[in-house]
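Backbone-to-sequence.
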């Protein structure tokens, strides 16, 4: 049984990675329905939180059915991170996660996210202050290092464990790599198999199939895997991995009906949480992913991303289901 403090996550937990503009409550709802074991909010700016910015505060919305769930914070100032952790704790998540992995310029160039990989003493001090400021378990998500010359994740893992983090998720790339090239899991395995490490180690990067998840589990001994991009438009990946681990069989992919049903649910939750206008607009980024691989889907997608009418959107989804169900099976 893998545990973060007292939070039981099962034998080999599958985690949903925090993703900006993706892992909001509507998306988390459909992932939870498909068996994800632990989820995180989108990353929340510590500066935005302590200044009560509406966008940051809204990201603290969590729902009982999502548990266990962590609120992920990022920032460059130790004092702000400490204060933000106190605010996040009051929102009553199951844990607080610190982002030391985000590679995008808008974050890293301000000294937050993966930028802290260039200043390990500051990273350690910041983490220690966050741990002290909350009664909740604190976890960290990071990368192998800043670039090929600073892959210091083994040392980082030991130091962060020593000051009290309860789990570590590692993306198998450096900041310089961004999302290019292949994730290097060998260093993730090195951290996991370090005799000094006793907290759960979760691997992240390029897990896009059940076979790959099991391969990483067997090869590197990680306690679980964290999935990000492969879950966008495909929340079924969580149930598929679990089924494969349990039975060794590859589960059939979702039917057209399932794709449409989950898309409708996602839309409904988006409207409930954000209001009709914003809910419809923000759902547009998901349609192409839900129906990826369908021939000649573009005309349907164009209508879906242009419409502001809920009834029309549902009608198009009905047409999608009827059209693709009527096609002969190859």
């Amino acid at each position: 049984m893998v545990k973060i403090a007292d939070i039981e996550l099962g034998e080999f937990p599958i985690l949903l990675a925090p993703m900006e503009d993706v892992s909001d409550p509507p998306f988390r709802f459909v992932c939870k329905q498909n068996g994800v074991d632990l989820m995180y909010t989108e990353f929340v700016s510590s500066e935005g939180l302590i200044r009560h910015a509406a966008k940051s505060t809204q990201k603290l919305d969590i729902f009982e059915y999502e548990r266990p769930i962590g609120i992920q914070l990022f920032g460059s100032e130790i004092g702000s991170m400490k204060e933000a952790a106190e605010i996040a704790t009051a929102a009553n998540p199951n844990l607080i996660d610190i982002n030391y992995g985000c590679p995008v310029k808008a974050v890293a160039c301000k000294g937050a996210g993966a930028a802290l990989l260039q200043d390990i003493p500051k990273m350690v001090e910041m983490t220690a202050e966050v741990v002290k400021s909350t009664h909740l378990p604190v976890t960290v998500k990071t990368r192998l290092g800043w670039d090929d010359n600073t892959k210091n994740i083994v040392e980082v893992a030991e130091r962060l464990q020593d000051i009290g983090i309860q789990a570590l998720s590692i993306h198998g790339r450096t900041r310089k790599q961004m999302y290019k090239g292949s994730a290097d899991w060998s260093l993730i395995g090195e951290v996991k198999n370090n005799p000094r490490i006793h907290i759960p180690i979760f691997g992240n990067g390029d897990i896009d199939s059940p076979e790959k998840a099991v391969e990483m589990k067997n090869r590197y001994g990680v306690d679980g895997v964290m999935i990000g991009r492969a879950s966008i438009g495909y929340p079924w990946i969580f149930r598929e991995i679990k089924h494969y681990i349990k039975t060794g069989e590859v589960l059939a992919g979702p039917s057209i009906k399932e794709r449409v049903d989950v898309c409708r649910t996602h839309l409904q939750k988006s409207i409930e949480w954000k209001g009709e206008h914003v809910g419809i607009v923000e759902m547009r980024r998901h349609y192409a992913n839900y129906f990826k691989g369908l021939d000649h889907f573009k005309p349907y997608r164009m209508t879906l991303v242009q419409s502001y009418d809920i009834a029309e959107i549902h009608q198009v989804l009905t047409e999608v289901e009827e059209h693709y169900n009527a096609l002969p099976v190859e």
